[in-house]
Specification:
This protein is mostly helical. The chain has six helices and no strands.
């Protein structure tokens, strides 16, 4: 999946409920259900261009929400950092014993609970 599409679908997961119903519906059908613009237009009884305009508006709104809040970027950075810390704990556990190993396991459980 290309980066732009991935970012848009993540923003939709976070902010989709803020979109008007039709924008949300068409965006979901296009990106998540992999329907073509023509298929959506036929089912909705509107032009292909009308569907495209709605999706473009939804993309713009989602991008603006992300620019203002940074929620998706922070979530991605948190996920990346948790993964990195888990890898560090794996390496540390190979070199430790006893109490240190127990603490490493405790830290790993805490990080895994954040990973989701």
């Amino acid at each position: 999946m290309e980066d732009k599409t991935l970012m848009l679908t993540l923003m939709f997961d976070f902010f989709g409920e803020l979109l008007p119903q039709k924008q949300r519906e068409y965006f979901d059908l296009y990106y998540n259900e992999d329907m073509s613009l023509s298929e959506i237009a036929e089912n909705a009884g509107i032009s292909r261009q009308g569907v495209r305009d709605m999706i473009v508006r939804a993309e713009k709104a989602l991008t603006e929400y992300e620019e203002k809040t940074g929620v998706v970027s922070r979530a991605l950075e948190t996920r990346r950092r948790v993964k990195e810390l888990l890898e560090i704990l794996d390496r540390a556990e190979e070199k430790s014993d006893g109490e240190v190993s127990r603490l490493i396991d405790e830290a790993r459980r805490g990080l895994c609970s954040l990973k989701g």
